C-alpha cells in the first residue's frame, strides 16, 4: 500500500493524489500539515515539506519525483504524453506550476489569507496580497492563456500532468475567493474548468470541501468519519514548527 504523507488541502499533495486516482492505484494518507510534522517527519522530508511518498522501504519527498515514480510504477493510463516533445512541454508546465504558481497562489495569496492566521495567529500582509492580485496573478494567467488548448486537455483527449499540475493551484485560489476572469482569459478558464471537472479532481474535491473549515487538530478524525483512506499511523505532533525553507 502506497502511503502519502500530507494534507488534502495542499496543491502538491493534490497533484500526487490526482495521479493515483487517475491510475486507480490504492493508497492511504497521513493527512498532516507540514508545520505539525514531528521529528520522524523531518527525517522523511529534509525540507519539512509535503507530500512524502512511502512505498515499502522507498521514501520520496518531492511531488514531481513522486508523480514520475507513479507513472513508472503503473504506466497506464499514461499521464505523461507519448510524444517526446509534448512530454517535455508537460514537464515544463508542471515545473511552472510548482514554482511560479506555487509562489504566487500559495505563498503570496493562500499563505497570507489562510495559513498565517490559522496556523500562526498572525495577520497576513494585505499590501502583498493586493500587489500579487494586480501584478503577479495576471502575468501567470496571461501565460496560461497562451498555453491553453482550444478545447479539452492540453495534449489531446486525455488528462496529463500538464493539466493536473496547474489546475491544483486554482482549488486553493478559489478558497480565498479568487476566480479566473473568463472574459479576460477565456481559454485558460475553460482549460482549468475542464481539468477540475475530471473524475480525479471531483473525487478529491468532495473530501477537501468537507474538511476545509475543520480545525487542523480535528481534521484526521473528520476524514476518518468521511471514509477517506486514512493511515493508521501518523507523523503529526501537537505544536507547529516552521520549515527550514524561506517562505
CATH-assigned fold name of the largest domain: Glutathione S-transferase Yfyf (Class Pi), Chain A, domain 2
The level-1 CATH class of the largest domain: Mainly Alpha
> What structural class do you assign from the helix and strand content?
alpha+beta
Mean pLDDT: 95
Q: Any idea what the shape is? A: globular
- Helix and strand succession? EHEHEEHHHHHHH
Q: Using the 3D structure, state the CATH architecture of the largest domain.
A: Up-down Bundle
- The poorly predicted ranges are none
Number of H/I helices:
9
Number of domains: 2
What is the quaternary state of this protein? single chain
| Approximate strand percentage | 5-15%
Helix coverage percent: 55-70%
Q: Provide the spatial order of strands within the biggest beta sheet.
A: 2-1-3-4
Number of strands: 4
- Major sheet: 4 strands, mixed
Radius of gyration: 17 Å
- Ends apart, CA distance between termini: 33 Å
Report on this model:
This protein has 247 residues and is of the alpha+beta class. The chain folds into two domains: 2-78 and 214-226, Glutaredoxin; 84-199, Glutathione S-transferase Yfyf (Class Pi), Chain A, domain 2 (Up-down Bundle). It contains nine helices and four strands, in the order βαβαββααααααα. The protein has helices spanning 11-22, 39-44, 63-73, 84-120, 126-147, 161-175, 186-196, 199-211, 216-226; strands at residues 2-5, 27-30, 52-55, 58-60. It has a four-stranded mixed sheet with strand order 2-1-3-4. β3 (52-55) and β4 form a beta hairpin. The model has no long low-confidence stretch (mean pLDDT 95).
